[in-house]
Amino acid sequence: MKQIITIIFFLFSIVINAQYNDWKPAEVFLQTGEVLIGRARLSMSMNRTEHPDEKRLTSFSIRVGNKEYLRFLEGNERRSTKFDTEEVKKVIFDLDYKKKEKRIKRKAIFIPIYKSLNKTKTGFAELIIDGKIKLAKKKISGAGVARNYTEEILLIRENESAIPINYAYKLKSFKKRTIEYFYDCPSLISKIESEELKKDDLELIVNYYNDNCAK
């Protein structure tokens, strides 16, 4: 029985790597200021981002995955150049794909994030809203042995670790989590407490903070 439990725990802990967007046209902005134009892809861990409440209130170690990186190809080159997250400022992909029989063309901006609270684990996430507080999303593996995937929604303050706002254990209500996170914006807290702004209004919440409370 103990051996079966160990095997199941191992399966739950598998790090699933995904090549986001495969090779796609991209602009890569490096921390040095250099801009590379060509094709790129991201190697990303599918493990969840660490949350302080989970770390404090659960006995399980939260796996935040292995190292993520970007590979870049210029022109007709066959050998790619590898860049660690620390070397990349952002990458803009030109995406062209079908969704429910509809052709979609859009740009997707990915930025580096801190995935662990001690900032030793880094990764990439797709930027939704830029500002003093950023809103981003990241595809992760869902609960269970089956390889189903879900989306992690992240709040990111400048130079701080990304915090998942829709984390799995839901140890606190969305209202309580957002009130704690946006502690320095009393007018926004008032709107959340009165339920003028709710869970489905997360983009409005982040925009309100950046427009009215960002210093």
Tell me what the structure shows.
This protein is an alpha+beta fold and 215 residues long. 20% of the residues lie in helices and 40% in strands. The protein is built from five helices and ten strands, in the order αββαββββββββααα. It has helices at residues 2-12, 52-57, 174-181, 186-193, 202-212; strands at 17-30, 35-45, 69-73, 81-84, 88-99, 102-114, 122-129, 133-141, 149-157, 163-164. A ten-stranded antiparallel beta sheet has the order 4-3-2-1-5-6-7-8-9-10, covered by helices on one side. Strand 5 (88-99) and strand 6 (102-114) form a beta hairpin. The longest helix is centred in the first third of the chain and has 11 residues, at 2-12. The model is unreliable at 1-19 and 56-64 (pLDDT under 50).
